[in-house]
């Protein structure tokens, strides 16, 4: 099982940026937790983070036919990136949307996601554990097949 974990703008500043909303763990530490969980399921994990929309689109296109799932936290691009939406639609890879904070308890503009209607599901508000929940879902979905 090959899984790509994508993190968008400003997620490289986790642990520094608003820790009361996003937690105190760095992205590197979160990735370590994801990797540990993934090893338990014998998943191959690739991580990618960029602050640039085009880089995220390029990465999604690059993994066409190479990964089974994408777990994505598009950051602020969640709310307006039609380019990311179109890339996900183009590659037809099963995708899970993850957000560290509960976007529905925040500013109104954060309530809208342009990818929520095309992904398997959306996990929001559980901090880094949302990524682990996505892996658990993948494991359960694969066992049902």
UniProtKB/TrEMBL annotation:
Pathway it works in: Metabolic intermediate biosynthesis; chorismate biosynthesis; chorismate from D-erythrose 4-phosphate and phosphoenolpyruvate: step 3/7
Keyword Isomerase: no
GO biological process: amino acid biosynthetic process; aromatic amino acid family biosynthetic process; chorismate biosynthetic process; quinate catabolic process
Site, as annotated: Transition state stabilizer: 17
Top-rank lineage group of the source organism: Bacteria
Amino-acid biosynthesis is among the record's keywords: yes
PROSITE patterns membership: DEHYDROQUINASE_II (PS01029)
Positions of substrate binding: 73, 79, 86, 100-101, 110
Gene3D superfamilies: Dehydroquinase, class II
EC number: 4.2.1.10
Catalytic activity, as annotated: 3-dehydroquinate = 3-dehydroshikimate + H2O
Annotated function: Catalyzes a trans-dehydration via an enolate intermediate.
Family the UniProt entry places it in: Belongs to the type-II 3-dehydroquinase family.
Quaternary structure (record): Homododecamer.
Protein name: 3-dehydroquinate dehydratase
């Amino acid at each position: 099982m090959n899984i790509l974990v994508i993190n968008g703008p400003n997620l490289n500043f986790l642990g520094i940026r608003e820790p009361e909303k996003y937690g105190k763990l760095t992205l590197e530490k979160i990735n370590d937790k994801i990797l540990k969980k993934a090893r338990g399921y014998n998943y191959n994990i690739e991580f990618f983070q960029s602050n640039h929309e085009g880089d995220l689109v390029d990465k999604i296109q690059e993994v066409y036919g190479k990964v089974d799932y994408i777990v994505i936290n598009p950051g602020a691009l969640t709310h307006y990136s039609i380019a990311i939406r179109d890339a996900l639609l183009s590659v037809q890879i099963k995708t899970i949307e993850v957000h560290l904070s509960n976007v529905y308890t925040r500013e109104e503009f954060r309530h809208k996601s342009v990818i929520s209607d095309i992904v398997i599901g959306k996990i929001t508000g559980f901090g880094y554990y949302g990524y682990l929940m996505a892996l658990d879902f993948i494991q359960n979905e694969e066992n049902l097949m």
